Amino acid sequence: MRPERLLPTRVYRFYRGGALIDRLRGEPEHDGDHPEDWIGSVVAARNPGRDEPLAGLSRLASGPLLRDAIKQSPAAWGMPNLLVKLLDPVERLPVHAHPDREFARVHLGSDYGKTEAWVIVATREESADVWLGLRDDVSREQYRAWIDTQDTHALLNSLHRLTVRAGDVVFVPAGVPHAIGPGALIVELQEPTDFSIVCEWDGFPIAAEDAHLGLGWDTAIEALGLSAYEPVLGLPDNEFFAVDDRPEPGGRFGVLLILEGEGELDGERVRAGDAFVLPAACEPFQTRGDLDVIRCLGGPPT
């Protein structure tokens, strides 16, 4: 098998952005309501109130949905246990968290939760801010009170504030509350789900009833990690995914994204913003030209 070129998959979200994704691809820059591009996705986006059953699903340049191609040859493609996103907010995202695998299995019928990592590719200014992990332990009762009263100041200021620049990597374990500030183009590696428990909706176009994944807060709050968490830049060894700059097969399901330059990949002309999915059975291929790439690999199959 060969690397398979992917078509862009821009996805509606409740927040605005996306101009840096356009800039990456050399297209006219526009901040709108499709601030993400999903790469190598076999997962549909969850957007309450929008009837878009195929939203978020990646399509091969040859025509079929990636999900359908994998169903035809699952062993050759490997386990699609990774979703990669280009993410470019022009406004701060609310405080939220994601369930881990055990919570997702029990309450959401999914084998995957949503541990993720952010690779900062570019920033609109010199740097950008993100918030990650509680500075101090918080009781479940206290955190629930902040949610119920929408004490957005307490929710945000309970978190560590980090300044990030191009080249930084931030690991975000499932359950850890976090928020992303405006102004950064992020390559996000994550488990293949779209599960978010949104703790802060006041001032955002989010309905309170959509914030807890339909579980109710008595259950949803059990997914949150409310112990102090000290964030560290860099990607630790983990079971979920790996990232590097090697333009070659990884022996498992993965994604290759061109970040800079022009040239050829497996005989095809490529430029910044082009994306390919790498099957597990991908054969060696050649690249030519001055290409800066990022390779994202799913974890070993379980």
Helix content: 10-25%
- Architecture of the largest domain, according to CATH? Sandwich
Distance between the termini: 23 Å
Please, what is the average pLDDT? 97
Name of the CATH homologous superfamily of the largest domain:
Jelly Rolls
CATH topology of the largest domain: Jelly Rolls
Biggest β-sheet: count, sense, barrel?
A: 6 strands, antiparallel
The class by helix and strand makeup works out as: alpha+beta
Strand order of the largest sheet: 2-3-4-11-6-9
CATH class of the largest domain: Mainly Beta
Number of domains: 2
Can you walk through the features of this model?
With 302 residues, this protein is of the alpha+beta class. The chain has two domains: 230 residues, Jelly Rolls (Sandwich), CATH 2.60.120.10; 57 residues, Jelly Rolls, CATH 2.60.120.10. 15% of the residues lie in helices and 28% in strands. It contains seven helices and 19 strands. The strands form five sheets. A six-stranded antiparallel beta sheet has the order 2-3-4-11-6-9, with no helix packed on it. A hairpin with a 2-residue loop joins strand 15 and strand 16. The two termini are 23 Å apart. The model has no long low-confidence stretch (mean pLDDT 97).
